[in-house]
Write the structure tokens for this entry.
Amino acid sequence: MPRICFSDSFLSSLEANPDGGVWYSDERCRGLRLYVGSSGKKTWYVHYRQNAKKLAHYKIGGLDLFGVAQAREAARAFLAAVARGETPYLKPEYTEKITLREFISGDYAPWVIEHRRSGKATVALIESSFEPLLAKPIEEITVSAVEQWRTNKRREKASKASTLNRQITALRAALNWGVKRGVIETNPMSHLERLPEDDSDRKVRYLTEEERERLRGALDNAPGYLKVMVVLSLNTGVRRGSLFALEWRDVDFDNRVLTLRASSSKSGKGYFVPLNDAAAEVLSGWRGGATDGLVFPSPVSGTVLNSVKQSWATLLKDAGIEKFRWHDMRHDFASRLVMRGVDLNTVRELLGHSDLKMTLRYAHLAPQVKRSAVDLLR
């Protein structure tokens, strides 16, 4: 449902949609909605929660009788009366069954885009993945309905198990958000089990020693900012987006610690990453006399970087390295730690994972840890 700051000029521009009526929601008065019917008739409604549970609309009147200011005043007065419990006699115009599309675009999207760095990508993932379910009321999106959607995807061989799990995780998180804030009553995804993932789905790509040496050699001819970013990524595991947003105030050279702020973190939570000798040295050499501002401003505009795709591809070509993404440097960082005997919980904290599930993908790289544990039983 489009959310608009209503104005007289906007309302006069609205035309009939022959394919069906369209709802519009007001940004300035929560609960105020305008319905434009297929005939072009425009009617004001107030959206509210009846008996603290059911979502309902109550008809205010037509646009010919109520202008924007009057409609907002009427909506606020009605909602205030509902809050005081003074309108039990009112019968709602109808009880609304909110669809998945309306919930995602009208309720979840504004919040997640504002509060999560990957918010736009999350919304796009949900809308593109669950297009067949978007028109359904949320109460009709049952576990069996999603299982059928997932079965069809697997039958068509359109998606791997890991991809489907990621899509469902995004939808489950959105619906959990809605339940916590009272927008919807229940999350039908709460009991849906993850698909088991094949080893090929969970394969971790990291550099061999030979590849690492070739990469170091190629960095000598790379742009300065790229060299620093790569060395930092390999030695801290920091995500690319967090590097783009990194500021000098986030770098504590005395204690050799990076502060990753919640606003630039994928999880929306801040955490700290220690700097080893290589990371501290390359950052110190890059700093010059800077004490504030971006660590890696765009060499073109001086603002936040938004891509290193071309320079990264050139670097890999010069190093003779194939099928290695920027994000794989994060895997390389974690893999080297595990193979050197660092426990998984410490690796989890260094990566900023909220739980151990994501970190367990590296467990197979430390068979000696399991062997040492069994050897204690003598």
Remarks:
- The chain has three domains: 3-95, 100-180, 209-373.
- The CA atoms of residues 51 and 88 lie 9 Å apart.
- The chain has 14 helices and nine strands.
- Residues 91-95 have pLDDT under 50 and may be disordered.
